[in-house]
Each structure stands twice: as structure tokens, then as C-alpha cells.
Structures
1.
Amino acid sequence: MYHRRGFTIIELIIVATFASLLFILFFIQKSNVDAINRDADRKTAINAMYYALEESFYKDHGYYPEQISEDNITVIDPALWTDPLGFNLGDSLSSYHYDPANCSDGKCKEYILRADLEKESAFVKTNRTH
């Protein structure tokens, strides 16, 4: 009696197709998880900037600055000024934005902090009403 060993071409094609689909699904999910993690990092940075402005800068000076950076907001980790893609707050490609308002002589009464997110709407923090 004749015994065949190995797999047929159809079996190999089915296995290869199934493996390809699993591979594609894995990388789609990995991409989504990575984007969600970057968004979480952005929210953390904006929250740190917000609390530094409110609890440190405003309490010490009684106003908000026209620009923020690690030079005038020294109470947060300097790494938080750089977004997950490597752009610093103030760079045109940065996902972080600081928009002061109602300013006079470098002293502002209001601001908007915003992070552009990948998987959600922008994350926005505004000044507290003092």
C-alpha cells in the first residue's frame, strides 16, 4: 500500500493564509495599543503642565506666562515637554499646544492647554477661574 507523507498544496495555502491573517490582526492591534499608550502619555503631560501652572506658577506670580517651557515651569519632569513623537511644546509639529489669552506685558489671565490625540478628541485643560 502506498502512503503519502507531507502536506498537500491546498493545506499549505490554508495554513499560510490563516497565519497571514493572524499576523495582520496582531499588528493592527499592536498599532492601536501603541496609539492608546501615546495618548495616555499626552494626557499625563498636559495634566502635569496644568497643575504646574495652577499650583506653582499662578500661586507664586498671580498670572500666567505668555509662553511655557522648562525654563519658567521648573516643577515638572523636563521630559514631559516633549510629545511621544519627539516634538517639543511650541514646535509646529508638536501635539502639545499652549494658547495664552487676555495678556498684557507678558502677564496673562487665561490659557488653554491642549494635546491632539490619535484615538480620541483633543484633550483640553483651561485655567481655573480665580
2.
Amino acid sequence: MEQEVIKITYHSQEIDKLEYIDGKSDWIDLRSAENKVLKKGEFALINLGVSMSLPDGYELIIAPRSSTFKNFGLIQTNSIGVVDESYGKYSDQDILRMPVLAVRDTEIHVNDRICQFRIQKHQPKIIFEEVQGLSGEARGGFGSTGKQ
């Protein structure tokens, strides 16, 4: 498996260090670096306590953990966050944050796992070729893969 070295600065000694858990998932958990009390309807940028310098040609995708809504009543306001390699490359003042909206009163504590990320190469350049129609069999439309 290809490995990349990512330079990282921790801005909090209270959060666990990032770790790649081989064989479980290639998404890596991020933790809150602050205690935060939010009332229903409030917006906040949750400090994740790290800055990273990504290699050229890479981006970082931040998404909520599957349990974030259930445990904290938070929705990530931009659905996913896309961080390109220019953010944090030159300054450790570019600290990762998670923009959230509370749908109920909630509390987040230092070191709570609230989101996850993965690093990936930029999408290759694409040429769109217009055709009169696609020849494959239909899947059944949006949301058609079932409930189980």
C-alpha cells in the first residue's frame, strides 16, 4: 500500500493523536479540541486542534462520523468539507474546524470524536463525451437499492 508523509501540528495536548487503523477503515477520526455548549439552532466552528500540510495534488475530505448526529444532534453545515493542499501548507494557524448546526441542545467535550477525514488525490482531468443515450440497464431510479 502506498504511503504518504503528512506534516501535522497538534494545537492541543488533550486530544488523542491521529492514527490510521489498518484493516478497519481508511477514514481517520478527528476530535474536538474544545468544550462547547450549543443550544438548538446555534451554529459553531468546532476546533479540531490540528493543522496539516498536504502534499501537492492531494485534498482532505472531512465528513461527520455516522454517530455524530445521534450522539450530539449536530449536522455538518457544508455536508462535507473539502480542504485543498494550499490550506495549512504554509501556516499552522490554518487549524481544521468543523462547521456545525445543533438540532437540539448539546455539549461537546474535548477529545470527543465528532468527524472523520480521508486524504485523496485530486480528481484527474476529465473529458465529457456527449452521446445520444446510455446503453446499460436501469437500476430503478434514485434510492432504489433498498432498505437493507
3.
Amino acid sequence: MINISESASEKIKELLASEESPNLFLRLGVKAGGCSGFSYGMGFDDDQKSDDKEFTIHGVKVVVDEESAKYLYGVQIDFEDKGMGGGFTINNPNAVASCGCGSSFKPADYEGTPEPCDDKVEA
């Protein structure tokens, strides 16, 4: 299960509304890369695959591809509005290590090679 705070879901709804496309949903995922092994992906999409996992959290449709789901089980997404320092945060109980910039993590079963950290988180 994925957990999204009420403040994060309200911000996501606000961002979805500004896109003016009724078929968009939030897609979460991970991909190999980043300074700890895996990088988070979070963005809007309108192309749902047959093997995607679908959740509705606080009225937000959330879709996760099957491969990413195992790394995102129990993840907590929050949003804090702190002016220049605010934004979405991801707390992942599956991570045994995270990078300083917060955009990548290492799960217990990963033995890959980390990449340089660019200190940027896409959301």
C-alpha cells in the first residue's frame, strides 16, 4: 500500500486541475540509477498498462508499474509548503540507504553500482 498525506493529495489535486486534462493520474515508479541505486519517478500520465497496480488515495488515482510496486510498498509521500525549501518528500521503509539529495535510495536486495548525485528531484 502507498500512503499519501492529505496535504500531498491536495497539492496533487491542485496540480492535476491545472493540467486541464481529465484522464491524467499520478504515476509513481522507480528506475535503476541515482547515487544510491534507484531513483524515484513521480509525474502525471494518461497511459495505463494492463499490469499496472491502481490505487485511489484521498480521491487521487495513483498508478504504479508492477516492477516498481515491490520497492514502493509502504512508501509515505508528504508535501510541505515552506516557500523555497518546500515540496514533496518520500519516506520509503524499503530503503536501507538514501542519498543526501533525497532523490534515490538503495533497497536491501540491490547490488548495483551507484551513479553520481545531481541533487535534483523531479516531481
4.
Amino acid sequence: MKSVFILCLGNEIVADDGFGFAVSRELEGDPLLDNEDVEVEFAARAGYYLIDCLSGRRRALIVDTIRTERDEPGTLRFHEKDAFTSSRHLTSSHQISLPTALRLAEELKVPMPERIDVLTVEALDLETLTEQLTPQVAAAVPRAVELIRKWITEEVCYASHEERKTALEA
């Protein structure tokens, strides 16, 4: 098991929810990953699965799609793991949020990464069944790969919030 983990989440057949899949494909064969202790995985799952994926890692970056309607589609943002709301009503294990999964892992004494970050893209379409990203989100894929490479080499991993914001705007 490699100590640095990039977990790309989503559903590759639901328009912009395929962003994580597209990013994971772009990272395949990246020379940086051959020289580093880094593993990249695409998963169409969440919930309890996050505990198993993250356990035993030193650092983790989760790549996912989000719709806040505060940003333009295709906007990339870094978040710390505690930036998200815990699950309130669970009708399935998929509804377990990252904070809820991490709290459960802590209670079960499962070793979690010392650093967990989330890179999100603002979605436009999360309803259409298609393997095509919208143009705005597709345009964000190369930039996301560039930011992930910087995160891997710790250029932005341990940066302050302002430094990360600057990296996103560059």
C-alpha cells in the first residue's frame, strides 16, 4: 500500500459526475507517479468505503464533483476534510459523508491519514446519463491534474489557505 493516495470519486456515466474518472485517466501513466509513493484510484462508491480506502495512508487527496451554485461550472477548489457537513439522515451507506466516515474510523481506532484534502470541481450537469463532461468541467481536467501534481510534491499540500487560493487562480 502506497502512503500517498489520490481517490477520484464519481460516476463515469453521469455527465459532470464523471470528472473524477476523467482525472484518474489523465493521471494514468504520469511519470511523477512512477517515481513517487503514490497510488491513484477511481471509485464510484463512497460511505463506509472511504474508511477502507484511506486506512493506513499518510496523505490522501479526494477528487470529486460538487454543486453549490456559488461558483461557475468548472471552478476548482481545495477543501480541508472538516469543510463538509456530517451526515444527518442515513437511508443508505452511500449517504455517509467524509466527516461521518472519519468520525466512525476514529471511534473504531482505524488509522487514518494525517492529512486529508478534497479537490472539487463545480458541476453544471449531474443528471444526464452520458459519458461526456460539460465543456466547462472538461476544461477543468488538465488544471486539476496540474494541481494534483503540485499536491503530490507538497507544493500546495501544506500551503496556507491563501497560498492554495493563489495556486488555483494561477
